[in-house]
Write a structure and sequence with these properties.
The chain contains twelve helices and 18 strands. The chain is of the alpha/beta class. The chain folds into two domains: 96 residues, Urease, subunit C, domain 1; 297 residues, Metal-dependent hydrolases (TIM Barrel, Alpha-Beta Barrel), CATH 3.20.20.140. The longest helix has 19 residues. The two termini are 27 Å apart. Bound molecules: zinc ion. The site of zinc ion has 4 residues, from loops.
Length: 406
């Protein structure tokens, strides 16, 4: 049995129930074999032992909403133009590059919420075969959207009930891991309107039902209450963005809708991209733009939702404007500030809660029997999330992908 022993100053197990001091994590055959607090007899360990003094062991991070094909350029127009212009080889190269960068910052699993054709699936499969380095990827292919609707430029347009059915089945045939729909318009696509629903309730439910029929979960992009009720009624596993917006500048948390989300164990995917990172971008704040001011109302409604007890994950939407995937830590730090979360709450949202949200029970925790997806960071992220920017080791399924001397 190929064994690896890891020791560090402390361990965050993914739940935050307790910080374990001086942990000894034993990995065998790609899985976590045991988590103890003292070294076992040397004779019981035949493999390698790696010590990380001053460091913390955590479960591999999970970003539940990224776009590997997008280039994180300065404007949405530039991103859309780049995708339209790039050759197939260039699109694949960017997905591969972003995947490699993701693993380097500790992301051992990402859920890709929208790409071109079956390109993300191709890279997902190459990573799974061990041909290239990257996190495990869950892919939706392209998101289902309307003519000129949000992300129509990714190529999966469906307007009528029948067209939508066809699009969902087509994605399943292209071997996706989940289905994604744009239930409202989005900020990136000027021809769409975030305040308007793109589909009626029946059509929206049909997509989630087709997913369930194939044993796949589904995700709905929702930027206003115009589609929140129908996305909750359709029981989408995750409501991406989950904006409680009722008018352009007004957000209103609705406890009745939130109660239904809790009853159905749905997750809100809260987005920490672009303007949501204002706390770390003084230049942005100085501009005093309306979208930055609007953030106060958005975060207040999300804070109410969290206090009410709705489950949530924190994602970066990496690939959109000014949101490169290697800045994952910055998104998590912004969540701490803006949503008034403790560091442990942030860490739970991007580990155990994220795994549960996207239906991967084998990971998200450092616990015997789970997959050995581990990140080691310098310092104590349960006190200061800035430690997430100092990743010294990443292991996926028991294999080291990065290890720097401490
Ligand atoms: Zn997105």
């Amino acid at each position: 049995m190929n064994q690896i022993l890891l020791t560090a100053d402390r361990l965050f197990d993914g739940t935050g129930a307790a910080t374990i001091h001086r942990p000894v994590v034993r990995v065998a055959d790609g899985k976590i074999d045991s988590v103890q607090t003292s070294l076992m007899q040397p004779a019981t360990c035949t493999g390698e032992r790696v010590d990380f003094p001053g460091c913390t062991i955590l479960p591999g991070f999970i970003d539940t909403h990224v776009h590997l094909v997008m280039g994180a350029l300065d404007t949405s127009a530039a991103i859309i133009e780049q995708i339209g212009r790039d050759s197939e080889a260039q699109l694949l190269a960017r997905i591969e590059d972003n995947a490699r960068k993701a693993l380097r910052v500790g992301l051992t699993t990402v859920r890709d919420c929208g790409g071109t054709k079956n390109h993300v699936q191709q890279i997902r499969d190459r990573i799974a075969r061990g041909e290239i380095a990257g996190p495990d990827i869950l892919a939706c292919g392209s998101p289902i959207t309307t003519t000129l609707g949000h992300c129509h430029w990714l190529g999966l347009v469906a307007d009528s009930f029948e067209e939508v059915e066809h699009a969902a089945h087509r994605m399943l045939a292209e071997d996706v891991d989940f289905l994604k729909v744009m239930a409202t318009g989005g900020n990136m696509t000027p021809t769409s309107d975030p305040m308007k629903a793109q589909y009626d309730a029946r059509t929206l439910k049909r997509i989630a039902d087709i997913g369930r029929g194939a044993n796949k979960h589904s995700a709905a992009h929702v930027l206003s209450q115009a589609a929140l009720l129908s996305a909750i009624a359709a029981n989408y596993r995750t409501i991406e963005h989950c904006d409680w917006r009722v008018e352009e500048w007004r957000y209103q948390f609705d406890p009745e809708l939130a109660r239904k989300m809790i009853d159905q164990n749905q997750f809100a995917g809260l987005t920490m991209s672009g303007f949501a990172r204002r706390a770390f971008n003084p230049n942005l704040v100085a501009l005093n733009l309306p979208p930055i001011q609007r953030m106060d109302a958005r975060f207040a409604s999300e804070r109410q939702m969290i206090e009410f007890g709705v489950r949530y994950t924190l994602h970066t939407d990496a690939g959109v404007t000014l949101c490169p995937i290697e800045q994952f830590a910055l998104g998590m730090r912004a969540a701490e500030v803006e949503l008034k979360l403790t560091p442990s709450e942030v860490l739970r949202a991007c580990t155990s809660s994220a795994a549960e949200a996207i239906c991967l029970p084998d990971r998200g925790m450092v616990q015997a029997g789970k997959r050995a997806d581990l990140v080691v960071v310098e310092g104590d992220p349960t006190r200061d999330l800035q430690a997430l920017e100092k990743v010294c080791a990443v292991m996926k399924a028991g294999v080291w992908y990065h290890r720097s001397p401490v």
